Amino acid sequence: MKDFSRSRKCIITLLTCISLVFLFISGSAYADLPGKGKKVVPTYAGVAQTLFQLKVVSEGLRQLGYEIKPTLELSMVTMHVAVAQGDADFLTNHWDPLHQHIYEKAGGGKTIERVGILSDGALQGYLIDKKTADQYNINNLAQLKDPEIAKVFDADKDGKADLAGCNPGWGCEKVIEHHLNAYSLRETVEHVQGSYFALMADTITRYRTGGSILYYTWTPQWVSGILVPGKDVV
């Protein structure tokens, strides 16, 4: 039941900040580096997997002569505000268009700028285990309106399908809530929220013990390296 929407992961910086170019420059040219004598503050939303791209960008800036200050760990909303207000200089965990509303509330193009794409064609959406999809011929989200199909994913026995979803404040939780209304799924589907990666650990365990699973995820991300789309889930 692949219902993925395409998105782009972007880098956001202050309008007055730097162009992100990766160069390896010899010591003799250090005096001419654009970042010499300048300090920049990175920020991220506390999701460990997003640190990789942040570290790559930080290293590129370091090679350009910038001094990288300690990273600020903030919420998805407040890290955009921090960049807009100058308390931080750049972030790398911005999804376009998923975080458009956060971007606009932080000032949009007047205070911050999208300056590069880290992962073009990234996806977000819903997946279920392939065994259940094949058994019940499930191929779209709207089928969960059927109570008989929904109860297949009822892990806590409350009569509704359990959809492992997104943390409040991430942005993707709003997409899920919108779909629950748009497809009239409130009576048959529960949006389970908490610590996303703890929910994913439970989801993986349930799959490995033969249970049916329903969850929201995105790529690139490690979960799809364990629950492989097209093989384990669809």
Question: Which short descriptors sum up this protein?
Answer:
234 residues, alpha/beta, Dipeptide-binding Protein, domain 3, D-Maltodextrin-Binding Protein, domain 2, 4-stranded antiparallel beta sheet, two-stranded parallel ribbon
Q: H/E series, N to C?
A: EEEHEEHEHEHHEHEHEH
- What value does the average pLDDT take? 89
Strand residue content: 15-25%
CA gyration radius, whole angstroms: 21 Å
Count of individual helical segments: 8
| Uncertain stretches | 14-26
Name the structural class: alpha/beta
Number of domains: 2
In spatial order, strands of the major sheet run 6-1-7-10
CATH topology of the largest domain: Dipeptide-binding Protein, domain 3
- In the CATH hierarchy, what is the class of the largest domain? Alpha Beta
Distance between the termini: 5 Å
The helix fraction, in percent, is: 25-40%
* Secondary structure tally: strands: 10
CATH architecture of the largest domain: Roll
CATH level-4 homologous superfamily of the largest domain = Dipeptide-binding Protein, Domain 3
Shape: elongated
* Major beta sheet summary: 4 strands, antiparallel
Descriptive notes:
29% of the residues lie in helices and 24% in strands. The radius of gyration is 21 Å and the shape is elongated. It is built from eight helices and ten strands. A four-stranded antiparallel sheet has the order 6-1-7-10. It has two domains: 7-121, Dipeptide-binding Protein, Domain 3 (Dipeptide-binding Protein, domain 3, Roll); 129-226, Glycine betaine-binding periplasmic protein, domain 2 (D-Maltodextrin-Binding Protein, domain 2, 3-Layer(aba) Sandwich), CATH 3.40.190. It has helices spanning 51-63, 76-85, 100-105, 130-136, 147-150, 172-182, 196-208, 223-226, and strands at residues 5-14, 39-40, 43-44, 67-68, 72-73, 90-96, 112-128, 161-164, 189-192, 214-219. It has 234 residues and is an alpha/beta fold.
